[in-house]
Amino acid sequence: MKTKNILPPTSKRVFLRTDPKINADIRNQTLRYLDIFKNEPGLSERIKQLSQEWDTERVMEVNASLLILLSSYLGIKMSRFWFLLTGTVAAFMLQHALQGWCPVLPFIRKWGVRTSDEIYAEKTALKILRGDFTGECPNAEDALNKTEKQ
Fold first, then answer.
1. What is the pLDDT of residues 69-113, one digit of tens each?
2. Model-wide pTM > 0.90
3. Predicted pLDDT of residue 95
């Protein structure tokens, strides 16, 4: 009998807690980007853009921080009841840190926000297609597959 790991590997925790259909949609979008940029002069520019892309962690950290600041302010100025929201957000962030899931994550992933590993995979695949590494890769899917095996 196979047991489910309560604390998944850090780099795979969000991917493992995301609906497989959404993971497939995100991967297919990455393949579309790779196909668009593989022979374009803008390939190097796309690599630079990927360094600026926000990943799931950054989006969640900003959202949680804003909610904590707002609920703390409202707790001080309005009613102590607002501190319940502060505690709830903190509990969900702890759950996310340990298990890779929290209530907002499915929405963030559905919006197409990728993990840092998914962004890095596209960046590396573009570098492979550009010829930065030894050996040639005939197509975008082979390049992406090479990055995922690392």
1. 999 999 999 999 999 999 999 999 999 999 888 999 999 999 999
2. no
3. 92
Query: The tokens of 26 are what?
Result: 């995100």
For residue 3, CA distances in Å to 6, 7, 8, 9, 85 come to 9, 12, 12, 15, 33
CB-based contact 147:124 (threshold 8 Å): yes
Q: What local confidence, expressed as pLDDT, does residue 137 receive? A: 65
pLDDT digits (tens, 9 = 90+) for 68-81: 999 999 999 999 99
